[in-house]
């Protein structure tokens, strides 16, 4: 009888593992093949051999690019080189990248930049906030941008017990920002188990010098984050769930869910078009190829546009308010 119980439990566990592995492969779009698309107005920007993890564009057309991220389980093309922040002027006919100098008081040797976000103060000073992973930890670095010198002055390192496995950031005030946590665990084996079991324990947090709090949770892997043009809505990408969450921002910085839009692809970073409010998303069509990197058969990437998320969010919110009235 005891052996039968053990065998039954073992069978149930193996069945659960098998079901989870199949579901994980499905979430990764493991069978998806990428069809190359030739875009006549696009050309390769040289000088970013170590990749570009995130891009943030100023109204002036200057673009900041974070490069050289070392991330658990991902291919690494610059194991012994620190990360960098590049600048590119999109106003130029043939834009080129330039590595920005960083002030000497900052530990550049351990610089491992991830998501970035800019903030322009009332006096037009530009600040760049960078998610950093020095020594496998998570911090947020605040820099002042000096345009004439093409340099970054390090001002502050922000740490907190809730700033763990930080992926991306969107800054909405001098020292107020939302940040995403993409994994609950920090051990690589546990991260893999977390993804396979689809635990959905990650979150979005709000940070200010006076208050730090979780404002949205229940994500499988909260990734890219940005804000609508009117700053009334926050958009969050849940990469393995293949969707974008629309969240309403309140005066106390809390967030409430409004809408979830499925994209059918693994959504990474987000950006809002400054003219139309459309959401542009950088996506992974086949994440399994990303995990099991093969230079002869690269994973590829794609860009998706969601032009009606903001308007749909407002319509849904209006419908809910009218219904409850």
Summarize the structure.
By secondary structure, the chain is of the alpha+beta class. Helix content is 18%, strand content 38%. The protein has a domain at 1-31 and 202-209 and 220-325: Neuraminidase (6 Propeller).
Could you walk me through the main structural features you see in this protein, from its secondary elements to its overall organization?
The protein is α+β, with helices and mostly antiparallel strands and 325 residues long. It has a domain at 1-31 and 202-209 and 220-325: Neuraminidase (6 Propeller), CATH 2.120.10.30. Helices cover 18% and strands 38% of the residues. It contains four helices and 20 strands. Strands 5-9-8-7-6 form a five-stranded mixed beta sheet, with no helix packed on it. It has a four-stranded antiparallel beta sheet with strand order 1-2-3-4, with no helix packed on it. Strand 16 and strand 17 (255-262) form a beta hairpin. The longest helix has 26 residues, at 2-27. The N and C termini lie far apart (61 Å). 32% of the residues are buried. InterPro entries: 6-blade_b-propeller_TolB-like, Arylesterase, Serum_paraoxonase/arylesterase. Ca(2+) 2 binds at residue 54. Residues 301-311 have a biased composition (Low complexity).
């Amino acid at each position: 009888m005891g052996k039968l119980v053990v065998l039954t439990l073992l069978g149930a566990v193996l069945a659960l593992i098998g079901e989870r592995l199949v579901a994980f492969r499905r979430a990764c779009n493991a069978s998806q093949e990428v069809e190359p698309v030739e875009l006549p107005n696009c050309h390769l920007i040289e000088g970013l051999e170590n990749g570009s993890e995130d891009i943030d564009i100023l109204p002036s057309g200057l673009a900041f690019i974070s490069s050289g991220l070392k991330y658990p389980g991902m291919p690494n093309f610059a194991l012994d080189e620190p990360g960098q922040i590049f600048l590119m002027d999109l106003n130029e006919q043939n834009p080129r990248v330039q590595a920005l100098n960083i002030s000497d008081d900052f530990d550049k040797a351990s610089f491992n930049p991830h998501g970035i976000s800019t903030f322009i103060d009332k006096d037009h000073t530009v600040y760049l906030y960078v998610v950093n992973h020095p020594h496998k930890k998570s911090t947020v670095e605040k820099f002042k941008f000096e345009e004439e010198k093409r340099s970054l002055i390090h001002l502050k390192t922000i740490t907190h017990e809730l700033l763990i496995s930080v992926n991306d950031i969107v800054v909405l005030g001098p020292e107020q920002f939302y940040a995403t946590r993409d994994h609950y665990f920090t051990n690589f084996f546990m991260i893999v188990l977390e993804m396979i079991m689809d635990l959905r324990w990650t979150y979005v947090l709000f940070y200010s010098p006076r208050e730090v709090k979780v404002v949205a949770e229940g994500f499988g892997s909260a990734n890219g984050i940005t804000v609508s043009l009117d700053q009334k809505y926050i958009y969050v990408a849940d990469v393995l769930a293949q969707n974008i969450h629309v969240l309403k921002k309140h005066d106390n910085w809390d967030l409430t869910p409004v809408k979830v839009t499925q994209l059918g692809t693994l959504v990474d970073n987000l950006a809002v078009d400054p003219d139309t409010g459309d959401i542009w998303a950088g996506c992974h069509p086949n994440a399994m190829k990303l995990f099991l990197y093969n230079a002869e058969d690269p994973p590829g990437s794609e860009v998706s546009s969601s032009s009606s998320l903001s308007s749909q969010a407002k319509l849904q919110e209006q419908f809910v308010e009218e219904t409850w009235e």
